[in-house]
Each structure stands twice: as structure tokens, then as C-alpha cells.
Amino acid sequence: MSTTGTSSFVVVANRLPVDRVVTPGGETTWRRSPGGLVTALAPVMRAYDGAWVGWTGSPDDAPEPFSTADMDLRAVPLSAEEITLYYEGFSNATLWPLYHDVIVPPEYHREWWDAYRQVNERFAAAAAEVADENAVVFVQDYQLQLVPQILRSMRPDLKIGFFLHIPFPPQELFAQLPWRRQILEGLLGADLIGFQRDGAVGNFESLAELFTGASAVGDTLVTDDGRSVRARAFPISIQVDEVARLAEDPEVQARAATIREEVGSPRHIMLGVDRLDYTKGIGHRLKAFGELLRDREVTPEDAVFLQVATPSRERVEAYQTLRDEVELQVGRINGDYGRIGTPAVHYLYSSYERAELVALLRAADVMVVTPLRDGMNLVAKEYVTARTDLRGALVLSEFAGAADEMGTGAFLVNPHDIDGLRRTMMAAMRVDDAEAEQRMKLLRDHVISHDIDRWAHDFLAALRAV
Ligand code: ADQ
């Protein structure tokens, strides 16, 4: 065993939390990416000489280790072929659909699995190299499920935590995976495994008992080699301060008012903000809205639908097909019900600055979050946080992790039930101010007291305690 590293806290994630910026003079610098995870972990990074191990996002990119204000960054290179096999293939065309209720059929290819294993070994080796003796290592998400076990075999001194940001499926689906035992054993290399929901914890525990030699003893799993592993739910959240500050910014509020005018000052603005992903139920909500227009329950003067779709995984075939389907649907609805200057659906295929995003949230009377399956869904939490005015209504799918915490204040819906979705969207539009305020207060109280700093603190405290 060699302990060569100096960091007593190491995060391992598919992506580094920085983006490369090339100055006009041709020099490369790095800018911290906006994510909530990196912001929540920054104080821990500073306090413990933290390091972050991840990929830069470009093929064959292996800059020397470098530092930002808060942490050391260790780039793990991926070749163009590995991006195709490990990232677009096994991560996003096998695991992603399998873990999201097989909404599209997962593909099982042995060469994708081989690449996944090799890349996981590379990430584990990089983490083993930077970690100081007895360091805490925090591994993130479905791309790196083998890292805990590989890392433990290299460095048994480490304390290893893992957090899965997406759902963990039930036996009926997970059992399809030809490499189910290996994935479970990979995860069981951790001391603490965090999931978004209690249901995922239950799924994992019963699968671990079924397909590995582990057995549940009280609230712990004991592996066949006698190690104790805890699995627990840690529902992730957002940077409440950042969203609330933007929401109170007069410029953002002025922008929200302008957006309302620009879409024709309808009585109701309905908003969807999602990565363009087949898990998000964009088609279901557009279908429901189109039917409301068809049956004249709403007119384009009453209500417009604003759908922001962030470009995502554009090289994966299922995402290209989805884009065509959504854009066909938007075109149909506007062709049938739009008027010159007043389309019924405003569709934006683009990424936005945080301030613009919060302005959209402030402009929306009804936020429509209807995933068919979602680990958590941060947009729902961002919406209620942005509503410092206690106005607006949240339509939320039962299949989002956020439904566990936000079920009482939101208008919960089963997105597969198009009539139910229509009724719920109408109810959210018609809710009176007093009830809307009461619901929004409940929602905000919960999110404000459960922000991402608390999530990071709870997870790391539980990890240190095991
Ligand atoms: P995602 O599937 O990406 O995350 P989500 O939780 O909604 O989904 O987070 C998306 C983030 O991107 C939000 O912060 C949102 O504001 C931002 N965003 C969306 N569209 C944008 C746009 N056009 N421009 C700029 N920003 C945009 C995965 C899981 C989720 C889980 C999170 C965190 O799928 O279930 O909640 O990780 O664990």
C-alpha cells in the first residue's frame, strides 16, 4: 500500500467542476462551472486540501494537475472511443434508460461494458494517487459505480462514500443487466451509499441480498467478506441563497415583467424547464396542453406554454429522435391553435444564464414538472425558492424524487394520465391567491430549511460516523 497523495478530501465525478476558457491571447484558464454540488463542497474542499478527480469534457485532454482557489484538479483523460463506449454508450444508453424505468429500451453491449470497467479503473487509480492516508473520498453518480470497490482494493485505509443522483430501479428492471452483480459489488465497496429516495434504498438493499453475498443486519448491509455498508436516502437540493438573491434582484424582476409582455401578457404563463431528455415527460405535458386548447378549455389569450429545453446528449440516438418528436409536437400545436404574433407554445432549445432562468421562474404562474421518472428534479426546488412573492403554483409528477418532500404544497400528478394532467394543470391555473400562497409557503419552508449545504453536511457527517 502506498499513500502518495496529500488531499484528505477527494471528490470523484465524471466531469471536473470547471470549464476551459481560452483567452484572446490564446492562454488556457479554467472557470468554475455553475453547479450547486461544487459550490456546496467548496468549503469542505478549502478546509481539507481537497482534490477533484474528473474528465475535462474534451477527448484526449490530459492537462497536468492544476489548482483553483478551492481545490486541486486532476484530469482523467478519455479517448474519443471511450467517450462513445463508456459515456454515450454504457452510461447514457445502458444505465440511464435502465435506471429510469426503461422508458426507452436500454442497450446491452459487451464492448461498452469493457470500456466502462476500464474507465472506472482509471478514475479509481487517479483518486488513489491524490488521497492522503485515511482520506475521505466522495464518488458521484452512475458513471462511476465500480469506483468504490476498485478504490477500496487499492487503498483499504480510505473512507469511501458514494451518491447516486438518479433513481435506483427495482429488481424487475435491474435484473436485466448482464453485469448486475458487478455493479452491486462495485457500489458495496463504499462505506456509505446515498440515494435520493427511500424507495431506492430498499431496491438496492434487496438486490444486494439477492445477487451478492450481502445480508441485511438491522439498517446495515454486511458483505460476504464481513464489511458493513450503510445505504440511506439523502435527498439533494439547491443553493437556496443564490436563487433567492437573484429572485429579489430588481433587474431580474424587471426582466420577468418584460418576458410576460413579450409572450403577449396572457392570464397564465405555464413553464417547463428541462434538459431535453425522454425522462422529463415533455411530450406528455404538451399533449395535455394541446388538448386543453383543442377543447377550448383554454385559449391562446388565456394561457401560453413556455418550454425551455436544454440541449443534452445530442450524439445519442434516442435524444435525436426525442428532439424531432418534441419539435413536431410544438409545430403541430402552434399550427393548429397559434395566431400571427401569438404562438400557443414558445419553445426554446437553448441553455441560459442563471439570472435569465430565475426571471423565467418569476414570470411563470404555473411551473409544470412532469418527469416520467427523475432522481430528484432541482427545477421544482428552484421554482419555489424563486417565488419570494409567494405566488405561482407547482404541478409536480409523483415520479420525481422531489414529490416525497413537496407532495403537500404541490399539485401532484401522474403524467401518464393525460386527463389527470389536464385537470391538474387547470386546477393550478385556477387556484385562488390565498390557497396558492398557503401552498407556496409550505413548499418554500421545506426547501429553505433543506438546502444543498445541509445535504452535503448530512452526507459527510454520516460518512465520518460509519
Ligand atoms: P438533471 O436530470 O439534469 O439532474 P435537474 O435536477 O432538473 O435535472 O437539474 C437540472 C439543472 O439544470 C437545474 O439546476 C436547472 O436550473 C438547470 N437548467 C435546466 N435547463 C437549463 C437551461 N436551459 N439553461 C440553464 N440551466 C438549465 C440529475 C438528475 C436529477 C437530480 C440532479 C441532482 O436527473 O433527478 O435532481 O441530477 O442530483
Automatic annotation (TrEMBL):
Top-level taxon in the UniProt lineage: Bacteria
A Pfam family per the record: Glyco_transf_20
UniProt GO BP: trehalose biosynthetic process
Alphabetized CDD domains for the sequence: GT20_TPS
MF (Gene Ontology): alpha,alpha-trehalose-phosphate synthase (UDP-forming) activity
Family from the record: Belongs to the glycosyltransferase 20 family.
PANTHER family: BCDNA.GH08860 (PTHR10788:SF106), TREHALOSE-6-PHOSPHATE SYNTHASE (PTHR10788)
Name of the protein: Trehalose 6-phosphate synthase
